[in-house]
Amino acid sequence: MFSARTPPPSAVAEPAAPLPVRLIAVDIDGTLLDPQFQLPPANAAALRRAHERGLDVALVTGRRHGSALPIALELGFPVCLISSDGAVTRTSDGALFHRHLLPRAAARELLHRLRACRAHTALIFDRDGPGTVVVEARALLTARLARWMEKNAPVLADVAPLEDALAEDPVQIMLAGTIAEMRAPRVVLADADLAGLVTVLRTEYEARDLCILDLLAEGCSKGHGVARFAASRGVPLGAVMAIGDNFNDLEMLELCGHPVVMGNACAELRGAGFAVTLPNDQAGVAAAVERALTSPTPSRG
């Protein structure tokens, strides 16, 4: 399996000493939200205090922009919204900051290589309304991702074959299934011929026996999205707190000076040497943010 390991956009030069947190980059599902997919008041309050202290806040998620936006709006203050694992960055009022789409030629090649996985596959576009999410076999995806399919019902379209939906560049190709079902496509995607064509990011929930593979343009990731936004704000990566819970958060955690893993993350991530906060059913984001707020108030760069 390969991921976006090309150097991220250059940020402000890093001093050797630890820096106070000036930007908080937080994942949504499994991190900011509780196990019932609700925003705990303590998490919202802590992020609001951070905003009032002058810190920037970014929500960094595998969700598409339209699905993540209600969470951003629920916070009640302006945030940066880095969606689709770093492919699209907008402010919470909708202004586009950056977009890195998957070229149609690459998408066609990937769909061809993964033709045996069509029942697990969705195409996602950066637009609104029906056709934002396109599937070829709705039934199995509904069985695997019932809540996701329900939430996306207003923007779903059925197209067979999926290639017929590629009138424009998609944001990503998403595959979802059991952990065992996703082993075969992971082998296909590890083919060296695909290096330089695609970034593959994995999200895995052992308790739900669910694995999601996001196929994005080469060089696209949460880490790159955070680095790009931090640079635009004049914030060194050493002054960024990143909070996550899954494998698609790993590069973001590795890049930032204050990485925090949720207590509900898998043992592999909790044992990777990052700080570990409370799990998402105990408002672990609030606990991590409150620790950051004990540092001196940062000044704007």
Written overview of the protein:
The protein has 11 helices and 14 strands. The radius of gyration is 18 Å and the shape is globular. With 301 residues, it is α/β, with parallel strands linked by helices. α3 links the parallel β2 and β3. An 8-stranded mixed sheet has the order 5-4-3-2-1-12-13-14, sandwiched between helices. Strands 8-7-6-9-11-10 form a 6-stranded mixed sheet. The chain is 29% helix and 21% strand.
Quick rundown:
By secondary structure, the protein is of the alpha/beta class. The protein contains eleven helices and 14 strands. It is globular, with a radius of gyration of 18 Å.
What topology does this entry show?
Elements: E1 23-26, H1 28-32, H2 41-52, E2 56-60, H3 65-75, E3 80-83, E4 88-91, E5 96-99, H4 104-113, E6 121-124, E7 133-135, H5 138-144, H6 146-151, E8 156-158, E9 172-177, H7 183-189, E10 198-205, E11 210-217, H8 222-232, E12 240-244, H9 250-255, E13 258-261, H10 267-270, E14 275-276, H11 284-292
Parallel strand pairs: 1-2, 1-12, 2-3, 7-8, 12-13, 13-14
Antiparallel strand pairs: 3-4, 4-5, 6-7, 6-9, 9-11, 10-11
